[in-house]
């Protein structure tokens, strides 16, 4: 079951990278007044999908490793991060004129929650275990 733990721990870097890339692309698009397009949709879906995979791996890890109290904060923040990312992308997609603002807010909230969730278990954001 260490493989699950290492997969969950390693996937964190991809989630963070996709989140930061998404944040930068959305911010540049907003600053240059570009419309929401295929690139934004693809990056948002990649970020949200990878984050959902991370949550699934996290649940599997939680079921196979010892429990400790800091996990409550970790679980809460990570579930909220996945929800924020998905909700903002889904709501934006259903709008007649999708914009960059709502996905930017969702990605920002998700990244803040992800960083908080990592720190909740006593680890640095980029610290390896």
Number of helices: 4
Give the integer mean of the pLDDT values: 94
| End-to-end Cα distance | 15 Å
Largest sheet: none
Number of domains: 1
State the order of secondary-structure elements, H for helix, E for strand.
HHHH
According to DSSP, the number of beta strands is 0
Instruction: Characterize the overall form.
Output: elongated
Radius of gyration: 15 Å
Question: Portion of residues in helices?
Answer: over 70%
Q: Which band does the percent of strand residues land in?
A: under 5%
Low-confidence spans? none
Class by helix and strand content? mainly alpha
Task: Summarize this structure as a short list of keywords or feature phrases.
mainly alpha; elongated; 129 residues
Describe it:
By secondary structure, the chain is an all-alpha fold. It has one domain. Helices cover 79% and strands 0% of the residues. It has helices at 2-31, 38-64, 70-94, 101-120. The mean pLDDT is 94.
Brief summary of the model shown:
This protein has helices at residues 2-31, 38-64, 70-94, 101-120. By secondary structure, the chain is an all-alpha fold.
What topology does this entry show?
Blueprint: H1 2-31, H2 38-64, H3 70-94, H4 101-120
């Amino acid at each position: 079951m260490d493989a699950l733990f290492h997969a969950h721990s390693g996937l964190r870097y991809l989630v963070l990278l996709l989140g930061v890339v998404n944040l930068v692309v959305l911010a540049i698009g907003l600053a240059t007044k570009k419309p929401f397009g295929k690139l934004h949709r693809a990056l948002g879906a990649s970020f949200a999908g990878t984050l959902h995979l991370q949550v699934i791996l996290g649940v599997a890890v939680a079921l196979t490793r010892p429990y400790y109290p800091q996990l409550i904060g970790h679980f809460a923040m990570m579930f909220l991060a996945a929800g924020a990312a998905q909700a903002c992308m889904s709501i934006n997609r259903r709008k007649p004129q999708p914009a960059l603002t709502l996905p930017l807010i969702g990605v920002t909230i998700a990244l803040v929650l992800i960083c908080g969730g990592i720190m909740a278990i006593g680890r640095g954001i980029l610290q390896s275990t």
